[in-house]
Amino acid sequence: MYNISSHSPRTALNNKQNKASQYLLKEILEANPQQIILKIYDVAIVNSKKRDLAKTNNAIQELINSLKFDDEKVREISTGLLRLYKFCQDQMRKQNYDIVYKILTDLRETWSNAFKN
User: Fold this and answer.
1) I need a labelling partner for 95 at 20 to 30 A (CA). Which of 47, 53, 58, 67 fits?
2) Residues 6 or more apart from 99 whose CB is under 8 A from it?
3) Rounded to the nearest 5 degrees, what angle is found at the Cα of 75, between the Cα atoms of 79 and 117?
């Protein structure tokens, strides 16, 4: 007998979402730290374009959490990035989405180029 409920559009959608989630999880688990940073930038950029304050700020907070201040050589860079990230969070609250999008896009491109070298 054919069970119609197991082949519903909702079941197909859930299966598709589950496969996408599994793929994303696998991709994240296999990523190196540089790839993870770029993915976090991607999330922040996409959500700033969507004007989603909460998701953008959550992604920026993850970037803040990744900063290192214990090494004197990188402290200055981390401090500058912290200021930029906090500025972006503030601008999101003020609904200046284009500014945030531009800053995050430029930073992502800079990091991507740095990771290639």
Assistant:
1) 67
2) 88, 91
3) 100
How far from 12 is each of 3, 6, 22, 90, CA to CA, in Å?
14, 9, 15, 41
Residue 102 has pLDDT above 70, yes or no: yes
**30 φ, ψ to 5°?**
-95, -5
| C-alpha span between 88 and 82 (Å, rounded) | 10
- Residues 28-83: tens digit of each pLDDT: 677 899 999 999 999 999 999 999 999 999 999 999 999 999 999 999 999 999 99
Helix 33-49 and helix 72-93, axial crossing angle in degrees, nearest 10: 20
98 DSSP assignment: H
